Amino acid sequence: MTLAKEYALDKAMAARQTCRSCHRRYHFVLPTSLTSCPECHDGTPADPATYTPPPAHGAHQLAA
Description:
Blueprint: H1 3-17, E1 25-26, H2 38-42, E2 51-52
């Protein structure tokens, strides 16, 4: 796998794993039936071990 392919795959997975409301990236794919993570959707507390905090404002972060 080339670096460009790895970057493209990471971008695609980030879109599926990132909450649109709080911008946390979870370690699992969020359900498409929800528009956000369970915590933002109905208040179910999320375990901090299941997500990475959102990046600092204006910072770019690669998962690799």
